[in-house]
Amino acid sequence: MPQVLDVHAVRAWCALALEALGRDREEIDAINVYPVADGDTGTNLYLTVESAVQAVEAVFAGLEPAPPALPDVVHAMAHGALIGARGNSGTILAQLLRGMAQVLAGDPDGEGDHSESADGDSLRRALRRAAESAREAVAHPVEGTVLTVAAAAADAADGPSADCADVARAAYDGARTALDATPGQLAVLGRAGVVDAGGRGLVAVLGALTEALSGDPVEPAGGRGVHHARVAVDQPLECADGEGPAFEVIYLLEADDQAVARLRTRLDGLGDSLVVVGGDGLWNVHVHVDDAGAAVEAGVEAGRPYRIRITHFAVGDAHTTHPASGSAPTGERAQRAIVAVVPGEGLAGLYSEAGATVVPERPGEAPGSGELVEAIRRAHAREVVLLPNDAELRHTAAAAAEQARTEGVRVALIPTRSAVQGIAALAVHEKDRRFDEDVVAMTSAAGATRYAELAVAERQSWTMAGICQAGDFLGLIDGDVAVIGEEVTRTARTTLDRMLAAGGEMVTLVLGDDVPDEVADRLERHVRETYLAVDTVVYRGGRNSALMLIGVE
User: In degrees rounded to 5, what are phi and psi of residue 237?
Assistant: First the structure.
Protein backbone atom coordinates (compact mmCIF):
# COMPACT_ATOMS: atom_id res chain seq x y z
CA MET A 1 0.00 0.00 0.00
CA PRO A 2 1.41 3.46 -0.92
CA GLN A 3 2.58 5.58 2.00
CA VAL A 4 0.30 8.55 2.79
CA LEU A 5 0.86 11.75 4.75
CA ASP A 6 -1.43 11.71 7.80
CA VAL A 7 -1.49 13.63 11.09
CA HIS A 8 1.06 11.31 12.70
CA ALA A 9 3.45 11.74 9.79
CA VAL A 10 3.12 15.54 9.99
CA ARG A 11 3.81 15.40 13.73
CA ALA A 12 6.86 13.21 13.18
CA TRP A 13 8.05 15.48 10.35
CA CYS A 14 7.96 18.55 12.58
CA ALA A 15 9.85 16.79 15.38
CA LEU A 16 12.49 15.40 13.01
CA ALA A 17 12.91 18.78 11.29
CA LEU A 18 13.54 20.44 14.66
CA GLU A 19 16.04 17.72 15.53
CA ALA A 20 17.83 18.09 12.19
CA LEU A 21 18.03 21.88 12.43
CA GLY A 22 19.25 21.62 16.00
CA ARG A 23 22.01 19.29 14.81
CA ASP A 24 22.94 21.45 11.79
CA ARG A 25 22.28 24.88 13.29
CA GLU A 26 25.92 25.90 13.84
CA GLU A 27 26.97 24.73 10.37
CA ILE A 28 24.13 26.69 8.75
CA ASP A 29 24.93 29.78 10.82
CA ALA A 30 28.57 29.51 9.73
CA ILE A 31 27.82 29.59 5.98
CA ASN A 32 25.30 32.46 6.22
CA VAL A 33 26.54 35.18 3.83
CA TYR A 34 23.36 36.21 1.98
CA PRO A 35 21.48 38.54 2.14
CA VAL A 36 23.51 39.66 5.20
CA ALA A 37 26.48 37.86 6.73
CA ASP A 38 25.01 37.93 10.24
CA GLY A 39 25.57 34.25 11.00
CA ASP A 40 22.10 33.41 12.33
CA THR A 41 20.20 31.61 9.56
CA GLY A 42 20.44 28.21 11.24
CA THR A 43 19.30 29.63 14.56
CA ASN A 44 16.41 31.50 12.92
CA LEU A 45 15.24 28.40 11.08
CA TYR A 46 15.45 26.36 14.29
CA LEU A 47 13.35 28.90 16.22
CA THR A 48 10.79 29.05 13.39
CA VAL A 49 10.35 25.27 13.36
CA GLU A 50 10.34 25.17 17.16
CA SER A 51 7.28 27.44 17.11
CA ALA A 52 5.62 25.16 14.52
CA VAL A 53 6.31 22.10 16.69
CA GLN A 54 4.76 23.78 19.74
CA ALA A 55 1.61 24.62 17.77
CA VAL A 56 1.26 21.07 16.45
CA GLU A 57 1.79 19.53 19.88
CA ALA A 58 -0.84 21.87 21.32
CA VAL A 59 -3.41 20.57 18.82
CA PHE A 60 -2.65 16.95 19.75
CA ALA A 61 -2.72 17.71 23.48
CA GLY A 62 -6.03 19.52 23.19
CA LEU A 63 -7.79 16.51 21.64
CA GLU A 64 -6.12 13.54 23.37
CA PRO A 65 -6.79 10.67 23.31
CA ALA A 66 -8.50 11.25 19.94
CA PRO A 67 -6.22 12.35 17.08
CA PRO A 68 -6.87 15.74 15.45
CA ALA A 69 -7.88 16.15 11.81
CA LEU A 70 -5.26 16.71 9.12
CA PRO A 71 -6.44 20.27 8.28
CA ASP A 72 -6.14 21.24 11.95
CA VAL A 73 -2.59 19.88 12.21
CA VAL A 74 -1.20 21.42 9.02
CA HIS A 75 -2.86 24.75 9.77
CA ALA A 76 -1.33 24.68 13.25
CA MET A 77 2.07 23.90 11.76
CA ALA A 78 1.83 26.82 9.35
CA HIS A 79 0.41 29.23 11.94
CA GLY A 80 3.07 28.29 14.49
CA ALA A 81 5.80 28.90 11.94
CA LEU A 82 4.22 32.23 10.95
CA ILE A 83 4.07 33.68 14.45
CA GLY A 84 7.51 32.34 15.35
CA ALA A 85 9.32 33.13 12.10
CA ARG A 86 12.78 34.67 12.53
CA GLY A 87 14.98 36.33 9.94
CA ASN A 88 14.75 36.24 6.18
CA SER A 89 14.99 32.47 5.81
CA GLY A 90 12.64 31.72 8.70
CA THR A 91 10.01 34.01 7.22
CA ILE A 92 10.31 32.30 3.83
CA LEU A 93 10.13 28.85 5.47
CA ALA A 94 6.91 29.93 7.19
CA GLN A 95 5.43 30.80 3.80
CA LEU A 96 6.60 27.48 2.34
CA LEU A 97 4.76 25.64 5.13
CA ARG A 98 1.70 27.84 4.64
CA GLY A 99 1.64 27.01 0.93
CA MET A 100 1.83 23.29 1.70
CA ALA A 101 -0.90 23.59 4.31
CA GLN A 102 -3.27 25.23 1.83
CA VAL A 103 -3.18 22.13 -0.35
CA LEU A 104 -2.97 19.49 2.37
CA ALA A 105 -5.88 21.05 4.29
CA GLY A 106 -8.06 21.35 1.21
CA ASP A 107 -8.30 25.14 1.30
CA PRO A 108 -10.07 26.64 -1.74
CA ASP A 109 -6.93 28.33 -3.03
CA GLY A 110 -4.90 25.20 -2.52
CA GLU A 111 -6.95 22.90 -4.76
CA GLY A 112 -6.78 20.12 -2.17
CA ASP A 113 -9.42 17.80 -0.75
CA HIS A 114 -10.64 17.32 2.81
CA SER A 115 -9.50 13.72 3.40
CA GLU A 116 -7.71 12.63 6.55
CA SER A 117 -4.51 11.88 4.65
CA ALA A 118 -2.70 13.11 1.58
CA ASP A 119 -1.48 10.90 -1.26
CA GLY A 120 1.54 11.42 -3.50
CA ASP A 121 -0.32 13.68 -5.90
CA SER A 122 -1.48 15.97 -3.06
CA LEU A 123 2.05 16.16 -1.69
CA ARG A 124 3.38 17.07 -5.16
CA ARG A 125 0.84 19.87 -5.46
CA ALA A 126 1.65 21.00 -1.92
CA LEU A 127 5.34 21.29 -2.75
CA ARG A 128 4.54 23.20 -5.92
CA ARG A 129 2.20 25.59 -4.11
CA ALA A 130 4.84 26.09 -1.39
CA ALA A 131 7.51 27.12 -3.91
CA GLU A 132 5.14 29.45 -5.76
CA SER A 133 3.76 31.17 -2.65
CA ALA A 134 7.24 31.71 -1.18
CA ARG A 135 8.44 33.33 -4.39
CA GLU A 136 5.35 35.56 -4.46
CA ALA A 137 6.07 36.70 -0.89
CA VAL A 138 9.57 37.99 -1.71
CA ALA A 139 9.65 41.49 -3.18
CA HIS A 140 12.69 40.83 -5.38
CA PRO A 141 13.40 37.08 -5.78
CA VAL A 142 17.04 36.10 -6.32
CA GLU A 143 18.25 32.83 -7.86
CA GLY A 144 20.72 30.74 -5.91
CA THR A 145 18.72 31.09 -2.70
CA VAL A 146 16.19 29.01 -0.78
CA LEU A 147 13.61 29.98 -3.44
CA THR A 148 15.66 28.18 -6.09
CA VAL A 149 16.02 25.12 -3.89
CA ALA A 150 12.27 25.04 -3.18
CA ALA A 151 11.42 25.27 -6.88
CA ALA A 152 13.88 22.48 -7.70
CA ALA A 153 12.33 20.28 -5.02
CA ALA A 154 8.88 20.79 -6.53
CA ASP A 155 10.19 20.07 -10.04
CA ALA A 156 11.94 16.88 -8.93
CA ALA A 157 8.82 15.64 -7.14
CA ASP A 158 6.78 15.80 -10.36
CA GLY A 159 6.21 12.14 -11.25
CA PRO A 160 3.64 9.35 -11.38
CA SER A 161 4.16 7.73 -7.97
CA ALA A 162 1.21 7.73 -5.54
CA ASP A 163 3.56 6.97 -2.63
CA CYS A 164 4.31 10.02 -0.47
CA ALA A 165 7.65 8.57 0.60
CA ASP A 166 8.74 8.39 -3.06
CA VAL A 167 7.60 11.97 -3.68
CA ALA A 168 9.41 13.26 -0.60
CA ARG A 169 12.60 11.39 -1.54
CA ALA A 170 12.52 12.85 -5.05
CA ALA A 171 11.98 16.36 -3.68
CA TYR A 172 14.84 15.91 -1.20
CA ASP A 173 17.24 14.68 -3.88
CA GLY A 174 16.24 17.53 -6.19
CA ALA A 175 16.76 20.06 -3.43
CA ARG A 176 20.23 18.69 -2.65
CA THR A 177 21.26 18.94 -6.27
CA ALA A 178 19.96 22.50 -6.49
CA LEU A 179 21.73 23.41 -3.25
CA ASP A 180 25.07 22.22 -4.63
CA ALA A 181 24.57 24.53 -7.62
CA THR A 182 23.86 27.70 -5.62
CA PRO A 183 27.50 28.95 -5.48
CA GLY A 184 27.47 29.15 -9.29
CA GLN A 185 24.21 31.12 -9.32
CA LEU A 186 24.90 33.77 -6.69
CA ALA A 187 28.27 35.48 -6.83
CA VAL A 188 28.54 36.20 -3.11
CA LEU A 189 28.22 32.47 -2.39
CA GLY A 190 30.86 31.60 -4.94
CA ARG A 191 33.31 34.13 -3.50
CA ALA A 192 32.77 32.83 0.04
CA GLY A 193 32.94 29.20 -1.10
CA VAL A 194 29.64 28.16 0.48
CA VAL A 195 26.16 26.99 -0.47
CA ASP A 196 23.11 29.06 0.40
CA ALA A 197 22.36 28.83 4.12
CA GLY A 198 18.58 29.11 3.74
CA GLY A 199 18.60 26.44 1.06
CA ARG A 200 20.74 24.24 3.30
CA GLY A 201 18.12 24.57 6.01
CA LEU A 202 15.30 23.68 3.61
CA VAL A 203 17.20 20.56 2.58
CA ALA A 204 17.30 19.55 6.26
CA VAL A 205 13.53 20.08 6.54
CA LEU A 206 12.84 18.02 3.40
CA GLY A 207 15.17 15.32 4.67
CA ALA A 208 13.08 15.17 7.84
CA LEU A 209 9.91 14.82 5.73
CA THR A 210 11.50 11.94 3.83
CA GLU A 211 12.52 10.22 7.05
CA ALA A 212 9.07 10.71 8.61
CA LEU A 213 7.39 9.06 5.62
CA SER A 214 9.89 6.30 4.83
CA GLY A 215 11.19 5.55 8.30
CA ASP A 216 14.75 5.56 6.94
CA PRO A 217 17.37 8.20 7.87
CA VAL A 218 18.56 10.29 4.93
CA GLU A 219 22.10 11.02 3.87
CA PRO A 220 23.26 14.35 5.37
CA ALA A 221 23.33 17.25 2.91
CA GLY A 222 26.53 18.84 4.15
CA GLY A 223 29.56 18.27 1.93
CA ARG A 224 27.78 16.68 -1.03
CA GLY A 225 29.19 18.20 -4.23
CA VAL A 226 30.48 21.30 -2.43
CA HIS A 227 33.50 20.29 -0.40
CA HIS A 228 33.86 23.81 1.00
CA ALA A 229 30.36 24.04 2.44
CA ARG A 230 31.67 24.18 6.00
CA VAL A 231 33.23 27.42 7.19
CA ALA A 232 34.70 28.12 10.60
CA VAL A 233 32.22 30.01 12.77
CA ASP A 234 34.72 32.75 13.59
CA GLN A 235 35.83 33.27 9.98
CA PRO A 236 34.80 36.72 8.70
CA LEU A 237 32.30 36.44 5.87
CA GLU A 238 31.60 38.87 3.08
CA CYS A 239 28.30 40.71 3.03
CA ALA A 240 26.22 40.37 -0.12
CA ASP A 241 26.10 44.03 -1.04
CA GLY A 242 28.95 45.63 0.90
CA GLU A 243 27.42 48.47 2.89
CA GLY A 244 23.82 47.37 3.30
CA PRO A 245 20.98 48.62 5.53
CA ALA A 246 21.76 48.93 9.23
CA PHE A 247 18.70 47.23 10.72
CA GLU A 248 16.61 44.09 10.35
CA VAL A 249 12.99 44.75 11.34
CA ILE A 250 10.50 41.94 11.93
CA TYR A 251 6.99 42.11 13.34
CA LEU A 252 3.64 40.34 13.30
CA LEU A 253 0.89 42.46 11.79
CA GLU A 254 -2.89 42.30 12.02
CA ALA A 255 -4.16 43.96 8.83
CA ASP A 256 -6.35 43.38 5.78
CA ASP A 257 -5.05 42.50 2.32
CA GLN A 258 -5.39 46.03 0.89
CA ALA A 259 -3.43 47.58 3.74
CA VAL A 260 -0.69 44.96 3.34
CA ALA A 261 -0.44 45.69 -0.39
CA ARG A 262 0.20 49.35 0.43
CA LEU A 263 2.66 48.34 3.14
CA ARG A 264 4.68 46.26 0.66
CA THR A 265 5.08 49.28 -1.60
CA ARG A 266 6.04 51.53 1.32
CA LEU A 267 8.62 49.13 2.76
CA ASP A 268 10.07 48.31 -0.66
CA GLY A 269 10.99 51.97 -0.94
CA LEU A 270 12.59 52.03 2.51
CA GLY A 271 14.99 49.10 2.21
CA ASP A 272 15.61 45.62 0.82
CA SER A 273 15.21 41.89 1.64
CA LEU A 274 11.48 42.53 1.96
CA VAL A 275 9.42 39.43 2.72
CA VAL A 276 5.76 39.63 3.76
CA VAL A 277 4.09 36.29 4.45
CA GLY A 278 0.77 35.16 5.88
CA GLY A 279 -2.87 35.89 5.15
CA ASP A 280 -6.34 35.81 6.70
CA GLY A 281 -5.60 38.99 8.63
CA LEU A 282 -2.25 37.94 10.18
CA TRP A 283 1.11 38.63 8.54
CA ASN A 284 4.79 38.32 9.32
CA VAL A 285 6.78 41.28 7.99
CA HIS A 286 10.57 41.19 7.44
CA VAL A 287 12.70 43.97 5.94
CA HIS A 288 16.24 45.39 6.10
CA VAL A 289 16.27 49.20 6.44
CA ASP A 290 18.34 52.12 7.66
CA ASP A 291 15.34 53.78 9.33
CA ALA A 292 13.85 51.17 11.67
CA GLY A 293 11.35 53.64 13.10
CA ALA A 294 9.90 54.33 9.66
CA ALA A 295 9.48 50.58 9.03
CA VAL A 296 7.54 50.19 12.27
CA GLU A 297 5.47 53.32 11.61
CA ALA A 298 4.51 51.88 8.23
CA GLY A 299 3.18 48.85 10.07
CA VAL A 300 1.20 51.05 12.44
CA GLU A 301 -0.41 52.78 9.45
CA ALA A 302 -1.32 49.39 7.94
CA GLY A 303 -2.76 47.78 11.06
CA ARG A 304 -1.61 46.55 14.48
CA PRO A 305 2.04 45.49 14.61
CA TYR A 306 3.31 43.53 17.62
CA ARG A 307 6.18 41.27 18.62
CA ILE A 308 8.39 43.93 17.08
CA ARG A 309 12.03 42.83 16.84
CA ILE A 310 14.80 45.09 15.61
CA THR A 311 18.37 43.87 15.11
CA HIS A 312 21.30 46.22 14.44
CA PHE A 313 23.63 44.36 12.08
CA ALA A 314 26.62 46.28 13.36
CA VAL A 315 26.38 44.85 16.87
CA GLY A 316 26.33 41.16 16.08
CA ASP A 317 23.76 39.40 18.23
CA ALA A 318 22.36 42.48 19.93
CA HIS A 319 18.57 42.47 19.86
CA THR A 320 16.37 45.40 20.73
CA THR A 321 12.72 46.21 20.94
CA HIS A 322 11.02 49.11 19.23
CA PRO A 323 12.47 52.42 20.46
CA ALA A 324 9.20 53.30 22.12
CA SER A 325 9.40 50.33 24.46
CA GLY A 326 13.10 49.99 25.22
CA SER A 327 16.55 49.69 23.75
CA ALA A 328 19.53 47.40 23.78
CA PRO A 329 21.06 47.07 27.23
CA THR A 330 24.24 49.05 27.76
CA GLY A 331 26.61 49.70 30.66
CA GLU A 332 27.29 47.57 33.71
CA ARG A 333 25.18 44.46 34.27
CA ALA A 334 22.78 44.42 37.19
CA GLN A 335 23.48 41.78 39.80
CA ARG A 336 20.09 40.04 39.61
CA ALA A 337 16.94 40.14 37.52
CA ILE A 338 13.63 38.33 37.17
CA VAL A 339 12.38 37.21 33.75
CA ALA A 340 8.77 36.05 33.62
CA VAL A 341 6.33 34.80 30.98
CA VAL A 342 3.03 36.57 31.65
CA PRO A 343 -0.43 36.18 30.06
CA GLY A 344 -2.37 39.42 29.81
CA GLU A 345 -1.44 43.08 29.61
CA GLY A 346 -2.68 43.86 33.12
CA LEU A 347 -0.47 41.19 34.69
CA ALA A 348 2.41 42.32 32.52
CA GLY A 349 2.13 45.75 34.14
CA LEU A 350 2.00 44.20 37.59
CA TYR A 351 5.13 42.13 36.97
CA SER A 352 6.94 45.09 35.42
CA GLU A 353 6.17 47.26 38.44
CA ALA A 354 7.73 44.53 40.59
CA GLY A 355 10.91 44.86 38.51
CA ALA A 356 10.54 41.81 36.26
CA THR A 357 11.46 41.67 32.59
CA VAL A 358 8.26 40.45 30.95
CA VAL A 359 7.75 38.08 28.03
CA PRO A 360 4.09 38.30 26.90
CA GLU A 361 2.19 35.06 26.31
CA ARG A 362 -0.78 35.46 23.99
CA PRO A 363 -3.53 32.86 23.47
CA GLY A 364 -2.20 30.18 21.13
CA GLU A 365 1.19 31.94 20.83
CA ALA A 366 3.51 30.44 23.42
CA PRO A 367 6.96 32.06 23.32
CA GLY A 368 9.88 30.01 21.99
CA SER A 369 13.21 29.46 23.70
CA GLY A 370 14.81 32.15 21.52
CA GLU A 371 12.36 34.77 22.81
CA LEU A 372 13.18 33.79 26.39
CA VAL A 373 16.91 34.01 25.70
CA GLU A 374 16.41 37.49 24.27
CA ALA A 375 14.52 38.54 27.40
CA ILE A 376 17.36 37.24 29.57
CA ARG A 377 19.82 39.26 27.50
CA ARG A 378 17.56 42.30 27.77
CA ALA A 379 17.48 41.95 31.56
CA HIS A 380 21.27 42.51 31.42
CA ALA A 381 22.09 40.86 34.74
CA ARG A 382 24.71 38.46 36.08
CA GLU A 383 22.03 36.37 37.80
CA VAL A 384 18.54 35.69 36.45
CA VAL A 385 15.54 33.95 37.98
CA LEU A 386 13.29 32.59 35.21
CA LEU A 387 9.55 32.15 35.84
CA PRO A 388 7.81 30.31 32.93
CA ASN A 389 4.37 30.45 34.65
CA ASP A 390 3.10 27.64 32.43
CA ALA A 391 3.62 23.88 32.75
CA GLU A 392 3.79 23.56 28.96
CA LEU A 393 6.81 25.90 28.85
CA ARG A 394 8.99 23.78 31.13
CA HIS A 395 11.20 22.34 28.38
CA THR A 396 11.30 25.62 26.45
CA ALA A 397 12.38 27.52 29.54
CA ALA A 398 15.00 24.87 30.36
CA ALA A 399 16.50 25.22 26.87
CA ALA A 400 16.60 29.00 27.20
CA ALA A 401 18.26 28.77 30.61
CA GLU A 402 20.90 26.41 29.24
CA GLN A 403 21.63 28.75 26.32
CA ALA A 404 21.94 31.76 28.64
CA ARG A 405 24.35 29.85 30.87
CA THR A 406 26.66 29.31 27.91
CA GLU A 407 26.72 33.13 27.59
CA GLY A 408 27.94 33.54 31.16
CA VAL A 409 24.63 34.27 32.90
CA ARG A 410 23.77 32.39 36.08
CA VAL A 411 20.16 31.27 35.58
CA ALA A 412 17.81 29.58 38.05
CA LEU A 413 14.58 28.14 36.61
CA ILE A 414 11.68 28.05 39.06
CA PRO A 415 9.04 25.70 37.60
CA THR A 416 6.02 27.96 38.12
CA ARG A 417 2.96 26.57 36.36
CA SER A 418 0.70 29.61 36.65
CA ALA A 419 1.07 33.38 36.83
CA VAL A 420 -0.37 33.33 40.38
CA GLN A 421 2.53 31.13 41.47
CA GLY A 422 4.84 33.68 39.87
CA ILE A 423 3.14 36.46 41.87
CA ALA A 424 3.77 34.49 45.08
CA ALA A 425 7.43 34.04 44.13
CA LEU A 426 7.83 37.75 43.34
CA ALA A 427 6.31 38.70 46.70
CA VAL A 428 9.21 37.10 48.62
CA HIS A 429 11.99 38.09 46.19
CA GLU A 430 14.82 40.07 47.81
CA LYS A 431 17.55 41.18 45.43
CA ASP A 432 20.05 41.82 48.26
CA ARG A 433 19.81 38.24 49.54
CA ARG A 434 22.28 35.59 48.39
CA PHE A 435 21.20 34.15 45.03
CA ASP A 436 20.69 30.59 46.28
CA GLU A 437 18.72 31.76 49.29
CA ASP A 438 16.53 33.98 47.13
CA VAL A 439 15.83 31.15 44.70
CA VAL A 440 14.94 28.76 47.55
CA ALA A 441 12.55 31.30 49.08
CA MET A 442 10.88 32.04 45.75
CA THR A 443 10.60 28.34 44.88
CA SER A 444 9.07 27.59 48.27
CA ALA A 445 6.50 30.38 47.92
CA ALA A 446 5.52 29.24 44.42
CA GLY A 447 5.28 25.59 45.48
CA ALA A 448 3.05 26.51 48.43
CA THR A 449 0.56 28.21 46.11
CA ARG A 450 -2.20 26.08 44.67
CA TYR A 451 -3.50 27.42 41.39
CA ALA A 452 -6.69 27.20 39.39
CA GLU A 453 -8.06 28.59 36.17
CA LEU A 454 -11.59 29.20 34.96
CA ALA A 455 -12.11 28.44 31.29
CA VAL A 456 -15.01 27.92 28.88
CA ALA A 457 -15.45 24.48 27.29
CA GLU A 458 -15.13 24.62 23.51
CA ARG A 459 -16.83 21.27 22.89
CA GLN A 460 -18.52 18.37 24.62
CA SER A 461 -15.90 16.14 26.22
CA TRP A 462 -15.11 13.78 29.07
CA THR A 463 -13.31 15.27 32.06
CA MET A 464 -12.27 14.10 35.51
CA ALA A 465 -15.35 15.93 36.85
CA GLY A 466 -17.76 14.36 34.35
CA ILE A 467 -19.08 15.29 30.91
CA CYS A 468 -19.02 18.97 29.99
CA GLN A 469 -20.96 20.64 27.21
CA ALA A 470 -19.75 23.40 24.88
CA GLY A 471 -20.11 26.71 26.71
CA ASP A 472 -19.86 25.25 30.23
CA PHE A 473 -17.54 26.94 32.72
CA LEU A 474 -14.70 24.72 33.89
CA GLY A 475 -12.74 25.07 37.10
CA LEU A 476 -9.29 23.53 36.59
CA ILE A 477 -7.35 22.99 39.82
CA ASP A 478 -3.64 22.29 39.38
CA GLY A 479 -4.32 21.60 35.69
CA ASP A 480 -7.20 19.11 36.08
CA VAL A 481 -10.91 19.81 35.60
CA ALA A 482 -12.46 19.71 39.07
CA VAL A 483 -15.67 21.73 38.65
CA ILE A 484 -18.21 22.05 35.82
CA GLY A 485 -20.79 24.85 36.01
CA GLU A 486 -23.21 26.90 33.98
CA GLU A 487 -22.53 30.28 35.67
CA VAL A 488 -19.18 31.95 36.25
CA THR A 489 -19.59 33.15 39.85
CA ARG A 490 -20.98 29.85 41.11
CA THR A 491 -18.27 27.88 39.31
CA ALA A 492 -15.53 30.13 40.72
CA ARG A 493 -16.98 29.91 44.24
CA THR A 494 -17.13 26.12 44.13
CA THR A 495 -13.56 25.99 42.81
CA LEU A 496 -12.42 28.29 45.64
CA ASP A 497 -14.16 26.13 48.25
CA ARG A 498 -12.41 23.03 46.91
CA MET A 499 -9.05 24.76 47.16
CA LEU A 500 -9.62 26.30 50.61
CA ALA A 501 -10.80 22.99 52.05
CA ALA A 502 -7.10 22.15 52.43
CA GLY A 503 -6.43 25.47 54.19
CA GLY A 504 -4.96 28.76 53.11
CA GLU A 505 -4.13 32.29 54.23
CA MET A 506 -4.31 34.33 51.03
CA VAL A 507 -6.50 34.17 47.90
CA THR A 508 -5.32 35.84 44.70
CA LEU A 509 -7.90 36.48 41.97
CA VAL A 510 -6.85 37.58 38.47
CA LEU A 511 -9.87 38.56 36.36
CA GLY A 512 -9.98 38.70 32.58
CA ASP A 513 -11.64 41.51 30.65
CA ASP A 514 -14.90 39.54 30.24
CA VAL A 515 -15.45 39.15 34.00
CA PRO A 516 -17.41 42.06 35.58
CA ASP A 517 -16.30 43.65 38.86
CA GLU A 518 -19.35 42.36 40.72
CA VAL A 519 -18.06 38.79 40.30
CA ALA A 520 -14.91 39.72 42.22
CA ASP A 521 -17.03 41.49 44.86
CA ARG A 522 -19.16 38.38 45.40
CA LEU A 523 -16.12 36.13 45.64
CA GLU A 524 -14.36 38.48 48.07
CA ARG A 525 -17.49 38.61 50.23
CA HIS A 526 -17.80 34.81 50.15
CA VAL A 527 -14.20 34.34 51.30
CA ARG A 528 -14.55 37.01 54.01
CA GLU A 529 -17.76 35.50 55.43
CA THR A 530 -16.80 31.83 55.11
CA TYR A 531 -13.07 31.82 55.82
CA LEU A 532 -12.45 34.43 58.49
CA ALA A 533 -8.64 34.32 58.55
CA VAL A 534 -8.19 34.40 54.77
CA ASP A 535 -7.36 37.62 52.89
CA THR A 536 -8.21 38.27 49.23
CA VAL A 537 -6.37 40.38 46.67
CA VAL A 538 -7.78 41.09 43.19
CA TYR A 539 -5.94 42.02 39.99
CA ARG A 540 -7.12 42.68 36.47
CA GLY A 541 -5.40 40.44 33.92
CA GLY A 542 -6.26 42.70 31.01
CA ARG A 543 -6.42 41.79 27.35
CA ASN A 544 -5.16 38.30 26.38
CA SER A 545 -5.44 37.01 29.94
CA ALA A 546 -7.35 33.92 31.07
CA LEU A 547 -11.01 34.23 32.07
CA MET A 548 -9.94 33.93 35.72
CA LEU A 549 -6.88 32.74 37.61
CA ILE A 550 -7.06 31.75 41.28
CA GLY A 551 -4.18 31.29 43.67
CA VAL A 552 -4.37 30.03 47.26
CA GLU A 553 -1.35 30.39 49.52
Answer: -115, 150
